[in-house]
Amino acid sequence: MGHMPRNVLLIVVDQWRADCVPMLGLPHLRTPNLDRLCREGVTFRNHVTTAVPCGPARASLLTGLYLMNHRQVQNGIPLDCRHVTLPQTLRALGHDPALIGYTTTTPDPRTTSPRDPRFRILGDEMDGWRPVGAFGPNMDGYFGWLAQRGFALPSNREDIWLPEGEDAIPGATTRPSRVPDELSDSSYFTEHALAYLKGRDRKPFCLHLGYYRPHPPFVASAPYHAMYAPADMPAPIRAATPAREAEQHALLDFYLRHTNQASFFRGGQGMAAAMDDAIIRQMRATYYGMMTEVDDCLGRVFAYLDETDQWRDTLIIFTSDHGEQLGDHHLLGKIGYFDESFRIPLVIKDPDAPDSRGHVENAFTESVDVMPTILNFLGGEIPNACDGRSLLPLMRESVPSDWRRELHYEFDFRDVFATRPEADLGLTMDECSLCVIQDDRFKYVHFAALPPLLFDLADDPHQLNNLAALPAYAPAVRDYAQKMLSWRMRHADRTLTHFRASPNGLEKRSRTQTGE
What we know:
Shape: globular
Order of helices and strands: EHEEHHHEEHHEHHHEHEEHHEHEEEHEE
Structural class: alpha/beta
Strand order of the largest sheet: 5-4-6-1-7-8-2-9
Distance between the termini: 32 Å
Strand content: 5-15%
Largest sheet: 8 strands, mixed
Radius of gyration: 23 Å
Oligomer: single chain
Number of helices: 14
């Protein structure tokens, strides 16, 4: 296989929920290109991001490290420069990794000046990538492209995402956005992807193809705004009232009181928790429309790979940084501990595993597995510190006997510029964290300084009934807390722990061997 060109296309969409994959049985959503990828690859049914929101999620994806190890715990928190990143490992293999989209990375302040303008924005591009289609700080790259294409930008340029028409009411809408689909941000990223690939002229490539959608603002360009009927959308899963929902936990109560619609709709008014069923269904129809637009964009990229006969030599990975509450539990965004925020799609087409075509894999997989999978495909060494494992054995042979038996994910809710829970909850910065372990039976949520949660997923798949304080469930709390502690101990930083001194000099051990 060594002489074949080895291409990697890592597609990272933003805020795309795991259940929005037609291959897994979702009706109505039209994504023919994602469907093709599912038919020709493997769809992972039980996949999570190991952290939210965007910055921490992408740090895990692009280092293979759990949040407890990479410690870019929130948007705007720096990523320690000592961590080995995907672009660094790709460069060591002789590749020139290209980036379209963004990584939401704040640099290590020890490597630059406090006056570095990258500290004035939510996150910038991770070092090591060659940016060939960046959003740019404050989306300057996209808005500059719009202006250069002759589009008349409003004085407040984000007003392109208001509903069309002077009489339009901001919020969930039946109307299109004010920007045509050929000038949307999804088209911007696609144009840059095609320009980059055409410039490579069939030479091998490693491309991170990022899209902003279906991330808010929840508004779609025509014709995508009207593609789906709100009546066809699933109703939200939530307690009878926000007040009833809030009784579950203090952190949930905080988000129910502080999540505004303005963060999800340009000019939006009111609280997320005040959205009724009809508004949520309209928002979901818009969300589906944005997904179909991204899928149509992917179709253009896939067609080019077909035309140039590169499709068959390319490892294609489709995933998201995190999910979206979308009205479930009366919430919007990617927050807290619910599955809607953490479960994400993962589809992988491995050109070397033709027998796996169309398979749906139920094993528990995590975002930290993506980097080792790419390195495995390219014949590279996986860094010892990496918390994830390559998924190629699951696709080419079968699930290894020692594969993980639970999903793990973390959330740090310390104060950042956009949201400030600390004073409300009476917690210090380092007390604002939670960790989740779950399998098919139970989900246990441990907080550093707040009461825990336990859900019986057999009886309560939607996680409305916390059992952690009930004596009958004390053994389950104990068992899952112990599993979580063991998991954390096994994954304590191991950058150098596989080395040891000996009379023969430095020895390097393999992580999988015992007793040598």
